[in-house]
Write a structure and sequence with these properties.
- The protein is α+β, with helices and mostly antiparallel strands and 286 residues long.
- The protein folds into two domains: 4-73, Alpha-Beta Plaits; 86-285, Metallo-beta-lactamase, Chain A, CATH 3.60.15.10.
- It has helices spanning 27-31, 53-65, 126-134, 152-159, 240-251, 272-285, and strands at 16-18, 36-38, 44-46, 71-73, 86-89, 92-94, 108-110, 116-119, 138-142, 162-166, 178-180, 186-189, 192-196, 205-209, 213-217, 221-223, 228-230, 259-262, 268-269.
- It binds iron/sulfur cluster.
- Iron/sulfur cluster (SF4) binds at residues 18, 22-28, 44, 66-68, 70-71, 104.
């Protein structure tokens, strides 16, 4: 819950505000870029109050995704139902409830025949769990790398799910049931492929679903300010050169995707041809 006593003085007048615990993870600006802006020091503040029901919903998404729970209303409005999980495109749910332990990374749920997949994990939340239960549960928790694990173990235990991670990052998830190794891709469930992409960390992987949705972890994201696919050079903990090679290998693999759904950075949808072209240009730029 946001702390009114810590309301930042640079918020515009009105009911919505951001408190000073914000740690500049950018998530709120993904959901409400027209309403929440970053100061020079990275602190988010409300730059304009919502004026329509759609903008009010954007603000609620920002509030429920904020890992420090820094966004709220002066009059302490009740959270409306159904804010998260948010079905971004058919069959792909953004979980919200981003966790501070993963520096506010996004987590994703896709219902699948035989049990759904949870990609990385949000903070434990009853509404998120209820939707997963209503949509057939979670059969596989798919960890993209060591940083974005949050409440993965709790979700896995609740649903009796298998947990996948690459061996190079496996020490971060000792509860994993399935540890992949090497650089070869691996089908973890029908239509769901793990593709190792060392670089951000040594054990980073993509998950590609039906050659339609690419879960990019902290390796590949939509850079919403630039309007392009990108990678985080300043947050590459293992090797930028290896990351470049990994993305080149993925671009040549024949896998396609229309949606990029990352841990950090923003999501985006386009045609598979457009995404592939942008990926090739990114590799050349790197
Ligand atoms: S989501 Fe929360 S912590 Fe992250 S930038 Fe927005 S207000 Fe700050």
């Amino acid at each position: 819950m946001a702390r009114l006593a810590d309301r930042h003085p640079d918020n515009v007048d009105g009911p919505w505000y951001v408190d000073t615990r914000c740690f500049d993870c950018d998530v709120a600006r993904h959901h409400a870029p027209e309403l929440i802006a970053a100061r020079a020091d990275g602190q988010s503040v409300v730059s304009r109050q919502p004026a329509t029901p759609a903008e009010e919903l954007d603000m609620w998404r920002a509030a429920l995704a904020c890992p420090t729970r820094s966004i709220g209303t002066v009059d302490r409005r009740e959270v409306p139902p159904g804010v998260f999980p948010w079905e971004l495109t058919p069959g792909v749910f953004l979980c919200g409830h981003n966790d501070r332990r993963s520096f506010g990374a996004h987590a994703w749920f896709m219902p699948r025949p035989g049990g759904g997949i949870l990609v990385d994990a949000p903070h434990w939340d009853r509404e998120v769990v209820a939707l997963m239960e209503a949509r057939g549960g979670v059969a596989h928790v798919l960890l993209t790398h060591r940083d974005d694990i949050a409440d993965a173990q709790r979700f896995a235990e609740h649903f009796g799910a298998r947990v996948w991670i690459h061996a190079a990052d496996a020490d971060a998830a000792p509860f994993a049931t399935d540890v992949a190794d090497g650089t070869d891709e691996l089908e973890v469930a029908p239509g769901v492929v793990m593709f190792p992409v060392a670089g951000h960390t040594r054990g980073s992987v993509f998950y590609v679903v039906d050659d339609r949705v690419l879960f990019g972890g902290d390796t590949l994201a939509w850079m919403w300010r630039e309007g392009d696919l990108g990678a985080f050079r300043n947050a590459t903990w293992y090797s930028w050169a290896v990351l470049r090679d990994s993305l080149e290998r993925f671009a040549a693999s024949g896998h396609r995707f229309e949606w990029i759904c990352p841990g950090h950075g923003k999501w985006h949808g386009a045609t598979a041809d457009e995404m592939h072209r942008r990926l090739r240009v990114l590799v050349a730029r790197m």
